Amino acid sequence: MLKPQATATRDLVNLDGTWRFALVQSDIEKEAPWSKPLPGTLDAPVPASYNDIFVDPAIHNHVGWVSYQRTVTVPRGWSQDRYFVRVSAATHRGRVYINDKLVAEHIGGYTPFDAEVTELVKPGESFRLTITVNNELTNVTIPPGIIEVKQNGQKSQRYFHDFYNYAGLARSVWLYSVPKAEYVQDVTVVTDVEGSTGVINYDIKTATPEASNSNSSSVHVVVVDEADKVVAEASGAKGSVKIPNATLWQPGAAYLYQFRAEIRQGGKVVDSYSVATGIRTIEVRDYEFLINGKPFYFTGFGRHEDTAIRGKGHDSAYMVHDFQLMHWIGANSFRTSHYPYAEEVMDFADRHGIVVIDETPAVGLNLAIDSGLFGKKLKHTWGPEYINDQTREAHADSIRELIARDKNHACVVLWSISNEPSSSEEGAREYFEPLVKLTRELDPSRPVCFVNVMFATYDKCLISDLFDVLCLNRYYGWYMHTGDLPTAEAAFEDELKGWVAKYKKPIVMTEYGADTMSGFRSYYNAPWSEDFQVAYYNMCHAVHDRFPEVVGEQVWNFADFQTAATHIFRVDGNKKGIFTRDRKPKAIAGVLRERWNAKLKELNEL
Ligand code: BDP
């Protein structure tokens, strides 16, 4: 799915700003918030999660629908165009109404969708745009959750993932146009390298597919380098172009060609769309992870889209600052834990040579963690009552939408289809096999992983053989052997030996960390102190360095982040950040900086 773009043949109008806002208090069909101006006096910023904007527990804790509304005018010059409202994310379910008419509905809180306006409003006219957004998580949504009705009749939301269920319109909303007659609907690029020649294999879909074969119009591609020089051209909707002496996209040294897909009619360009394309290869060979044929070592973070007040609202200042901090500390990669991030973030990673493990929102498919941590009776994750066939369909959709959105990003080197599912519980294999197959069919060019939870050790995990890379989240010294680093070290080393003996696959440590109160110091390395966090990471790194099979380390987490208030072991959120929520470094930051910059020097990325 292409991100809207302004070109010579397309326009783009940004609809961000403050929108009218209201909770839906009763039955949404009866209330019909789209049918009239919203009641009340609230305005909400877009993009932002709404939860922390207002000083009102009823809004903060609301479970159900909310409405956003504003007036939009279709530009008067759009008579030869088709036009759409693009919602970059409505978390977790969104409906778009043009005046009184429902024109689109979408489930899945972190991927975009379009609503066509063309036939409903003429150029130059205005319309009432209402977007209703629902934040409910059930056993058939991704991520899943459980809705309970309290004694007072109010709904409450439970979920089994460790980040706050921020909701609303956290990413931009757009109005955009494409040419009415024919337009470029989708572009897929897959790159390769032959000696010093870069190869871009491409597949272009037009809105009228026969167009590419018709006499009157044809599809062309033009590849332009960073100096704006045309370096390759070709005709046809499907094929490949070669770029002699190509500059490759490398971790830490990005280079992007503009791959321009054009529809031409009688020598005239009637539509064009450009994809920023980094030429690079990815390969998993034995236990190595190769980018452009060179062994790669992931340094960096599991992150969250999370800041004060905005919640998951995309913010360019935070984005640029966070990338600056990643550069400063020597991070060459991150994982989009635990959902697809804003498209702007992916573009930025492409431009700055940061490697991304791209994850679906399939997190919390695990009732064993909840039972294990709180000593409750073990409940079964996989089966008709919780994660069932319908959930798997939603999960498949989340994979389809992630790949459709992010397939052209050079930065994406690995798909992660789930975080910490209950992979040692019977039923896991039956659940995951078709999803892995689907992912490989949709994108045969990238390796696939899932992220393994600490209970599902090498002798218990039922699905690791289905994947290309072993991604492990381990908390030896924190959740296990808390504070006892020598015992933790031995246990961690033992477990890694088990994985290495059983599988010949690269291992990336995708999470390890310790909650740390910024400013709490201890002579005795007490857990929660900055000193303990340093000692903990030094222990983990000593173990990583004993295994050539470990090809990466992404610490948990980049910054402190908000979690559900029902997690009584969290005080105002998860504190495993290397930086505080407002991006101040803890003592560990300097230690990581030294280690990772030395690694990057070894890899020639500095
Ligand atoms: C892991 C989860 C992550 C949590 C982390 C933690 O993948 O989302 O935040 O543990 O407990 O289980 O800090």
From TrEMBL:
<feature type="domain" description="Glycoside hydrolase family 2 catalytic">
    <location>
        <begin position="282"/>
        <end position="597"/>
    </location>
</feature>
<dbReference type="InterPro" id="IPR006103">
    <property type="entry name" value="Glyco_hydro_2_cat"/>
</dbReference>
<dbReference type="Pfam" id="PF02836">
    <property type="entry name" value="Glyco_hydro_2_C"/>
</dbReference>
<dbReference type="Pfam" id="PF02837">
    <property type="entry name" value="Glyco_hydro_2_N"/>
</dbReference>
<dbReference type="InterPro" id="IPR013783">
    <property type="entry name" value="Ig-like_fold"/>
</dbReference>
<dbReference type="Pfam" id="PF00703">
    <property type="entry name" value="Glyco_hydro_2"/>
</dbReference>
<feature type="domain" description="Glycosyl hydrolases family 2 sugar binding">
    <location>
        <begin position="14"/>
        <end position="179"/>
    </location>
</feature>
<comment type="similarity">
    <text>Belongs to the glycosyl hydrolase 2 family.</text>
</comment>
<protein>
    <recommendedName>
        <fullName>Beta-glucuronidase</fullName>
        <ecNumber>3.2.1.31</ecNumber>
    </recommendedName>
</protein>
<dbReference type="InterPro" id="IPR023232">
    <property type="entry name" value="Glyco_hydro_2_AS"/>
</dbReference>
<dbReference type="InterPro" id="IPR006104">
    <property type="entry name" value="Glyco_hydro_2_N"/>
</dbReference>
<keyword id="KW-0326">Glycosidase</keyword>
<dbReference type="InterPro" id="IPR036156">
    <property type="entry name" value="Beta-gal/glucu_dom_sf"/>
</dbReference>
<dbReference type="InterPro" id="IPR006101">
    <property type="entry name" value="Glyco_hydro_2"/>
</dbReference>
<dbReference type="InterPro" id="IPR017853">
    <property type="entry name" value="GH"/>
</dbReference>
<keyword id="KW-0378">Hydrolase</keyword>
<feature type="domain" description="Glycoside hydrolase family 2 immunoglobulin-like beta-sandwich">
    <location>
        <begin position="183"/>
        <end position="280"/>
    </location>
</feature>
<dbReference type="InterPro" id="IPR006102">
    <property type="entry name" value="Ig-like_GH2"/>
</dbReference>
<dbReference type="InterPro" id="IPR023230">
    <property type="entry name" value="Glyco_hydro_2_CS"/>
</dbReference>
<dbReference type="InterPro" id="IPR008979">
    <property type="entry name" value="Galactose-bd-like_sf"/>
</dbReference>
